[in-house]
Write a structure and sequence with these properties.
Elements: H1 29-34, E1 42-43, E2 47-48, E3 52-56, E4 60-63, H2 70-77
Antiparallel strand pairs: 1-2, 3-4
Length: 78
């Protein structure tokens, strides 16, 4: 199967739903470290978390916390 990487998605991704989902959901490590529930991976039309590294099939969030994702920083400078 050939995979194409498409640039420009506009999505909401978070790990803050806790018991509001019918599936098991892990917690954001940044929220765990700060004992909060405010950090989100991607907010539609707003921002992408500095620790967000992508999505892996099927709905697995790739996170590099506590190291910043330098490719996000580089894209924002363009």
């Amino acid at each position: 199967m050939k995979t194409t990487i498409l640039d420009g998605a506009n999505m909401d991704i978070d790990l803050t739903s806790e018991d509001k989902t019918s599936w098991k959901q892990m917690k954001c490590p940044w929220n765990v470290a700060e004992n909060s529930n405010v950090h989100k991976c991607a907010i539609k039309n707003v921002s992408i978390c500095k620790y967000f590294c992508g999505i892996e099939y099927l709905d697995n969030v790739l996170c590099c916390y506590p190291e910043k994702n330098t490719s996000v920083d580089n894209k924002q400078k363009k």
